[in-house]
Design a protein that fits this description.
The protein is α/β, with parallel strands linked by helices. It has helices at about 20-25, 50-65, 95-105, 120-130, 140-145, 170-175, 225-245, 245-250, 255, 270-275, 285; strands spanning about 5-10, 30-35, 85-90, 110-115, 130-135, 150-155, 180-185, 205, 210-215, 260-265, 265. Helix 2 crosses helix 3 (about 95-105).
């Protein structure tokens, strides 16, 4: 359906999806990925709104599926006086992880969070103090913590690339029956070895007694909130494309240009090329009127 004279400006998540990559290259269209458009300080402004929504929803989903009626352990996330709250492990302290953390703290859970960015961990420690335990990401520590966890939130992001598999199937086997994993990274292939995409109509499945929630479009469940949040972020870029035309807009704005993934049959995303073993070119060398 796409043609060479058309612009596709949306979430693409191509790294784990070779079929979509091939189809977009064959179309000849100019395809710009929301998730790799940048802003100052390396921020991903068009991914952030949906990451905020998904991060907050991940705790709601986990709390619901911990209930016995949904197959969980029968644990109240916040606990009550005299009874411990749920123990949550968050993998990743980016936008998703920090928003999940905010919700989990608000619900009174027992939380630890992993990341490889010490500065992010330092900021979390300064803000939350002893309400949150922070860990540098290490496979042995992750295994130790998730074996005791009631909930694990997968919130890892490598911009434009496939998510790393931080939790192996063997680790899942060591988790408690009725515990819950929520893989927010599923759009990029997921960070649990046992993850596979699910839908809102059938959001979970069980592996070795562990409930997996791997909905590939979590914000779709709260479409009104998500639409307004995304429109606020995308409008300036859409306006620039409409007023300047795609070639000039991409040439002028290197942040928008960082989102270019496919142009006239050529792949321009290095992470996608490396993930799929495809040749790629830089956006700059292709943007000639």
């Amino acid at each position: 359906m796409l043609r060479e004279d058309q612009i596709l400006f949306t979430y693409l998540h191509l790294a784990p999806d070779p079929e979509q990559t091939k189809a977009l290259m064959q179309s000849g269209a100019t395809c710009i990925a929301y998730e790799t458009v940048t802003a100052l300080n390396g921020v991903l402004p068009l991914l952030a709104p949906m990451s905020e929504v998904a991060g907050r929803m991940s705790i709601q989903a986990a709390a619901s599926h911990l209930e016995k009626t949904n197959g969980g352990m029968g644990i109240l996330m916040a606990g009550v006086p005299g009874v411990s709250p749920a123990k949550i492990v968050i993998l990743g302290a980016g936008v998703v992880g920090r928003n999940a953390l905010q919700m989990a703290v608000g619900m009174g859970a027992d939380i630890c969070i992993f990341d490889r960015d010490i500065e992010r961990l330092r900021q979390i420690d300064m803000f939350y103090g002893n309400r949150v335990r922070t860990f540098y990401s290490d496979s042995l520590l992750i295994e130790q913590e998730i074996c005791e966890a009631d909930v694990v939130i997968g919130a890892v992001l490598l911009p434009g690339a496939a998510a790393p598999k931080l939790v192996s199937h063997d680790m899942i086997k060591k988790m408690k029956p009725g515990s819950v994993v929520v893989d927010v990274a599923i759009d990029q292939g997921g960070c649990f070895e046992t993850s596979k995409p699910t839908t809102h109509a059938d959001p979970t499945y069980v592996v070795d007694g562990v409930i997996h929630y791997c909905v590939a479009n979590m914000p779709g469940a709260v479409a009104r909130t998500s639409t307004f949040a995304l429109t606020n972020a995308t409008y300036p870029f859409v306006e620039a494309l409409a007023n300047r035309g795609v070639m000039k807009a991409l040439s002028i704005d290197h942040h928008l240009r960082n989102g270019l993934s496919v142009h006239k049959g050529v792949l321009t995303s290095e992470p996608v090329g490396k993930a799929q073993g495809l040749n790629f070119a830089s956006a700059e060398e292709l943007l000639v009127e």
